[in-house]
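Amino acid chain
________________
===
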Amino acid sequence: MDELNDWRTEKVIFVKPTQVGGTEALQNIILYVISQDPAPAMLVYPTDALAASVSKNRLIPAIKLSPKTAKLFDDRASSVDELQFDGMYLVLAGSNSPSSLASRPVRYLLMDEIDKYPAASGKEADPIRLATERTKTFPNRKIFETSTPTTREGHIWRDLESADVEKHYFVPCPHCGELIELKWQQVKFPSGEGLSNQERADRAYYVCQGCGERITEAQKNRIVKYGEWRAVREDPSGKHGSVAFWMSTLYSPFVTISEAVAEFLKSKDQPELLQNFCNSWLAEPWEDAKLRTTSDMVLERQTDLPELVVPSWAKRLCGGVDVQETSLYWTVRAFGDYFTSQNIAHGQVLSWAGIEQAMNREYVREDGTKMVVSLALIDSGDQTDAVYDFCGQHLDWALPVKGSSKSMMSYYKITTVDRQGSMYRGRQLCIVDGGKYKDMIASRMRRRNGTGSWMVYKGCDREYAEQVTAEQKVAHRTKTGGVEERWELRRSHADNHYLDCEVYATAAADLLGARSWHLEEEQETQSRIRQQAEERRPAQQQDMMPEETWIGKHDDWLR
């Protein structure tokens, strides 16, 4: 709250867990502005409904309880979404309403829970950018934003990382007096042998990283009162325009150490609960380590083979095409036993002729064998008629594909096109569960190069690597109270076209039976072994009846 009065500071960022007074701080800032520095202001919440609820149940009662602000408040001229005061107005808006965000200029912009704001649409900028535009006419503008973090690519964490100054809260150890930052790794509790989770939590304590002494719950609450904000990172040039503050729930006077440990023990084996603990208790961004991918990881999957050369183990080539309004992205991937795969070529073209050329060219395997794409799945979500017509002209290798809007029981299913007037009507259409294939790609990408891994050619470009890893898996609470994990873009406007291409190429291999190729080879090997054994048997034994052969092998059967 004090930081907003620093003339150097334009933007204050508060990354917080739950139960540390973040919303209360925001409300205090509003009351200060009304009483001490009146100017047009806007308060933004994730939805219109939440903004109206806060206005009616929390903000207006607080304004009326404070003598100074009550005197300045014009109750008759105010509505739930716009409060009028002597010398200023306060607009309350939902981030889901672009029109309310772009309605009027403001000097003070305060935004709550920004990681819950919707992403940018094709017609409007993202809500934060849209609201910030309202402050452009004020050179002395002040912006305050707070949120519990979600992922590293969420709004609040990206703003924290890009801030000129980052401050954490330090408290004096009651034993050594050293100023320390409360960190989760310093929380200790006994192992689970013979103890329930609650018993383990009840015995939890904090260990000072300076002197190693135990800090009890009562001591923790006392030292928090004497703490101070300290910069842990500052811009070398001395810039001070944006200042970020961070703290975890360990500082909260409303949450005990044992409660935090109990929540962790309850959550640690369930990803969706662990994500909530990581976000809402530790105020840290969530990343599922099992499915986390990075562009560097992709480049680490390079083999010794250059672009366009097919590995010797490859059995089929499969393609994937992502159709955009102005261009088409494509990939060709070699597949072998155990779903071993390697990208051998990819690119962006401006016309269908480019796709035809990429999919029909002859790619040469290491042993000199020439191979062509067996099957390519082409995205029919955009330019649908053009995709159907193209696939109708190339029935021998092209099949339209569409991503399912919800999770499926299987990875894919085949249906038929029912589109009036299309030359492709009545022909096959593949529906894929993109999430399942992204899970597969992410898990195989983490394997070392070899059997069953997901690889790329030597010299693979970073643009491809960035696009293939442009999404991450995020847990969402469903309407029924359950948890659903979905793949989402790491940041607004990121390109993920090559990832979609790889999903379609992998689905194409699935359609061709890639999961069972190794079984077919094993069956052929066993059949060949049996045939060779049969050929080695003596001629007279081959002429014997089956029962005679049995008696010869079991001549002691009468005993």
